[in-house]
Amino acid sequence: MTLVRIVFVASCLLSTGAVYSQDSRPAKIDARAEFQPCTTCHGRPDPELSSDQLWIDRVSETTCVQPLGKKSAPLRGALRAYLLGKDDVPKRESTVRDAAAGEGQIALSEPENLSVLLTPIASDGKSATPIRLVWKAEDGKAARTLPAGRYRVQHYAITRRDTQGTEWQLWGSGAKGRTIVVAAAEEPTRLNFNPGVRLASTAMWTDVGLQVGLAPTGDGGMGVTIMRAGKRIKTKYRLLGTEGVTAKGPMSYG
Known about the structure:
The chain is mainly beta. It is built from 3 helices and 18 strands. Strand 9 and strand 10 (167-173) form a beta hairpin.
């Protein structure tokens, strides 16, 4: 048996929810119901945030909506119209305000352009209405105020620029977000997201050929997507064996 190892030149995978299909769909599309399976992973995006605008724009090309091409155009159009609207958009806290009775605060450990969607965890273990906290780097470590309680991080977006001025965004989402406890009338809970990306790769020869898999994860093990200048970074792979490169090519995802 030939021993091999995988080298990924670049990597990125969009965390996805259900795969939608246009087959056997009624003429009138209920976009809210169609998007509902995605809320357990991504949450409802906010069209007024640049990172969420990019996410919404991807509806026109994502492979989560099947089939590709013109047949799914009505569904993609309905989903995009719904996501660009204001229905069901979580409350956003993006400015400094004093905490009222029963409220606590979250502050950043370091200044960051950051958006975090938090889902409250009720005492019975069920999730409640989410809330989004937003910071700009110039805000420093300013606190954001929200009801005291336990929360799960459902989605986060970090935005930075490199030395050439190119904008990079790191999106994280999924069911593995960390739990945050916010106490009332105490010092703010400190929050710091790890921008590092970890990769787990697999390669398997099957009856239909080589199958290459890649699972990039970020803070807390959440699935991540990396955006550069408004587009996901391209992904390639190389399969190395005892005789050198045995397979290589691009990867399709998301």
